[in-house]
Amino acid sequence: MTLDHLPLDLRRTHRAGELRPAQAGERVVAMGWVSRRRDLGSLIFIDLRDRSGILQVVFNRETQPEVHARAGELRSEYVVAVEGDLVRRKPETINSSIPTGEVELVASRLLILNDARTPPFPIDEDVTSAEETRLRYRFVDLRRPRMQSNIELRHRVALETRRCLSEQGFLEIETPFLTRSTPEGARDYLVPSRVQPGSFYALPQSPQLFKQLLMISGFDRYFQIVRCFRDEDLRADRQPEFTQIDLEMSFAQPQLIFNLVDHLMENLCIVANQHWESQARIQSLTNYRPIEIDKPTFPRITYDEAMSQYGTDKPDVRYEAKIVSLDPLVSAKVANEVGIRPPIIGFKFSPKPQVMSSATAIRGELKSVLDLAHQTFPELRARQTEPDKPALLVDFCIVKEGAKILKDVALAQELLTRLNAKEGDVLFLGAIKGTAELRDQYLPHRCFDILRRRIAHQSEGYDSQAKRFLWVTEFPMFEYDEEEKRYAAMHHPFTSPTDETLDRLESDPGAVKAKAYDIVLNGTEIGGGSIRIHRKDVQARVFRALGMSEEQARQRFGFFLDALEYGTPPHGGIALGVDRIVAILAMESSIREVIAFPKTARAVDLMCDAPTPVSAAQLKELGLELRKD
Ligand code: ASP
């Protein structure tokens, strides 16, 4: 088959998916891919696809015999240019399932610009091919309307971020990729230096230190949509390189950052709504509902509130049921008899009609939650080998008219009132059994979080399509690392302690709270940040609390500690995860669906086959030698 050149004077006049009856009668030149071809003898139809959608093109043997004959050569995914008149379709041939369904292009010229091999999977919307094949042929996969829509939404999010932050006086400033280790605490990706053999750059885990330096330099409001690199074991929502909206402000209090991000997120939701309204495929989606933001500011709760009410620092507040403390209710005497001790907690589950209502079903669910909890939390895991370690005790009862839920009738009544329970509700009660000291006071709560997440979608009042944002504030400054037997920074070591708890840095580090915050959307952390330490005396005390000697601190962050002494303004910031935000706005469950060229869970790029071994010559040039064992 001969291919045509694209003539210099032939310009595309419209995108295929944009055409409507208002343009009927116009001369149209469209260019794109053959999505489908139907040969009815004297008429050949093709669906011409470009990134805006699909347009039906008709080739008529009677009026345009040569063009019709050429159209006979078309196959799926051939690249074409078609010129013709746009006409309204006859009422009986209107296709109401696509936005261009009332018109068609009657072709008078066809150029076949390229042929194509049969794609490894059909490009049509609802194909579920193996992800490995999709990633290997990502260039074809990205041609699918769903992926085109996701990538466009991502672009809109980036554009709106730039617009919104610029309007608030932020400057976008780039920071280096070839740098040295940053303080996020994950493993670094290293890049060997050729010029200085034996020395390595680290790719930044975030621009943390640079953005703080920019505050010292007086830029006062910085942002960047920036790639970060962390060599971690990957999970569904992690990638070795990921993108953040990174920002920093001088003279900022947490409130200022919350308000700014509330405003930004609200605008991103508006943009997502606009995007979805422009999407042809919205018609086929049953789970789409425009995002409603009902309050100008998102709710804010402290870390301790989040843990005691939801058992997690990223609660999904689409489901309102909270954990309730029953401590003062269950007397110490009763607790002692049963061998449990505070905290004793309760949780009410109101199943939707016909769901999880039998005791057997609930018992089964509970067992698997408890098994998971015992595997997940080290303090509970230890019990398997050391029986005196704490164990989790959870029981439940179903509220039934006239039935006794507990032996102690007064206690039962109080319980029903506290949990606001009604007929048919299931009440879960949890506590820790055993006498060993508990390091984690929220252990029973964490187990209820697992339970809460599992049963949420079966509960009355759970609105799976809602978008619920939440701020979690005042995180603990440190967390205890059981393996290393020392405190580690929960956020990073440049995070400022709260003014009220600063005094306890030396005496009780576990009680120190940080001016650190996370923003959570539907149970997923989508960003985190803090107000930073701007005084060198406080910074030195924090390093000490972390068990870092002055020398060690100097070795890792010397340049930064120097800079702190040159007039550092109070400052703070946040980083928001673009991949996660776009995935939620695009209604995708994996961030790989919103990244053009993602890696697999083993950090491999299947399309370009990276990473790969390198030649001996390259290694030599870098002064590196591979171990043979
Ligand atoms: N650099 C931090 C991070 O990437 C965010 C911040 O504190 O601004 O998690």
What does this structure look like?
A hairpin with a 3-residue loop joins strand 1 and strand 2. The chain has helices spanning 65-71, 131-136, 138-141, 145-167, 208-216, 254-277, 303-310, 332-338, 359-376, 378-381, 409-418, 443-455, 536-545, 550-564, 578-585, 616-621, and strands spanning 27-39, 43-50, 53-60, 79-88, 103-114, 171-172, 190-192, 200-202, 221-229, 241-250, 300-302, 323-325, 340-349, 391-398, 426-433, 469-473, 478-481, 486-489, 516-521, 524-531, 571-577. The chain is of the alpha+beta class and 629 residues long. An eight-stranded mixed beta sheet has the order 6-9-10-21-20-19-16-11, with helices on both faces. A five-stranded mixed barrel has the order 1-2-3-5-4. It has a four-stranded antiparallel beta sheet with strand order 12-13-15-14, sandwiched between helices. The relative contact order is 0.11. Helix 4 (145-167) packs across helix 15 (578-585). The protein binds aspartic acid. Residues 184, 206, 208, 528-530, 573-575 line the site of aspartic acid.
